[in-house]
Design brief:
It is a single chain. The protein is mainly α. Helices cover 52% and strands 0% of the residues. It has helices spanning 25-37, 41-44, 53-56, 68-76, 80-86, 99-103, 110-123, 127-133, 137-146, 174-179, 197-209, 212-219, 221-251. Residues 12-17 have low confidence and may be disordered.
Amino acid sequence: MAHAATTRVQEHIGDPFSAEPVIDRGQLEEIFQDIQDDLRYDHELNGCLNCGICTATCPAAHYYDFSPREIVQLLWTENLEGIYDAMQEKIWACAQCYTCAARCPFGNSPGGLIMLMRETAIKHGMESAKNVLRPFSRVMLKLISTGNQLAPDMINPDHFADWGPNISKVDAPLKILRKAIPMPTLNTTATAWEVNLKTSIELYTIWEMTGVLDQLETIDENLFDVITDIMDEKRDDWEDFLDEQDDEDDDD
C-alpha cells in the first residue's frame, strides 16, 4: 500500500511550557522515516477510528501510563515529537501480547508498530533502549556466546538481584518442571544444553549479517567487545578443527 500523497504531519513541534530542550526537527524526521520505511509499517497501520478498543483490552494499559490507541494516533498523524516522547518510556510498557491486533476493527497492530519503534530506538542508541536492555546483558551474553538461554536454576534472586523485587517470586519446583520436557538433553537444571561449535558460529554469522551485532554495539559497546572476542576464539577453534580433519584425511 502506497503512502498517501497528502501529509497528516502536525506542524507544531515543541512544547512552549516544557523545560526540556527542543529536539532538532531533522532528527525527529529521521527517526520517523526509519519507522515508516520498514516493510511491516503499511501492514500494521491502516487507519484509526479512535474507538479505543485496543486500549480497553490492553493488559499493560491497566497498570501503566500506556495506551495503544495513543501510539497509533501519534503515527497516523505523524506527530514527530509525540512519537519521540513515546519512545523514551511508553513503548517499553507493551507486553507484545497482540490483543490489540486481534481486536482492532481496522486491522491495525499497535503491538507490531511498537516493535518497529523499539527497533528504531535501539538503532538510534536511545537511552531508553539502553536502560531497558541493560539488566538483560548477561542473558544476551549467554545466548549469543553459547547459542542457548539460561538454565532454569540460574533464574534466582542471587544471580539477578538487580532485577528488583519481582525476582524474589521465582520459587518454582524447577527440577520437577524440567522433567516434564520430553527431550532427555533438556532434563537438567544445573547447566544449559551444549551447542555444537559449528552451530554456534552459524548463529553468530546470522546475527552479524542481519545487523543484530551492529545494534548491540550501539546499545552496549562493552558487551559487544566481549562477545566479539568470544566468537573470534570460537572461529579460531573451528578453523583448528577443520585443519585437524584435513590432516587426518591426508594420513588416510
